[in-house]
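User: Quick sanity check before I run a bigger batch. Here is a single chain. Can you write out its predicted 3D structure?
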Amino acid sequence: MLLCIIFFFQILSAQEDKINISAGPGIIYSSSIYKSKKDRFIPIPFISLKYDRLSVNGIRVSYNYLRTEKTNYFLSLSFKPSGFDPADGYYLKDMKKRKDIFFVSNSLKYDTQRFVYGLEFSYDLVSADPCYILGTEISKTKRLKKGLLTFSFKLEYENENLSNLNYGVFAYEAKPWRAEYLPKAIILPSVNLYLISFKAQNRTIFLFSSLKYLPGKITKSPIIDKRYNFILILGYLFKL
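Assistant: Done. Predicted structure follows.
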């Protein structure tokens, strides 16, 4: 809500400042880690916007509320396709529905020119119990002839509430074929790629992909059947 107010206020107050905005079709692909649940394809209207300290990139809205020569602090709101529906398959029958996640995040980026180091605290706005992620990241950006390419390695600590909700089976969900299982707090490593490619006639291709490794504490769950989780976000944008 705070980010929406900031966005609205800055759009209204924009007079001489230029807003760089592009829009077009986009899609999110999220591989399923759950037994009997299919992968997801989610079509989205993709918007890329940059105005002063405010930026929008598809499923993430960020406000750079404090910056110095080497450090930047961001407040962000982001969407993460997640969870499942009990109707998704036999192994998930009679379980409580796991909803998609909306995170509000506070992050720090420190630029050493060679690498950018990041710290982030993300809080889940959807779950009833306190669910959060603590993340640390190292990234490297390479300038292309017509674009930017960023690689990063990230470690994320999911607290017990979030981990149990994402990968666990609570006592009231247990069945003869599905034992109770709670993995508790975990650390998840991932490798990520971010690409912006500028084409002719004011067109831009945006791509983000993330491959996350699922440790044994997760794969031992009776509802999990993958060792990796893959997410791809793709947008084809036209400058407005």
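The helical segments are 2-13, 160-167, 216-219.

User: Great, the batch can go ahead then.
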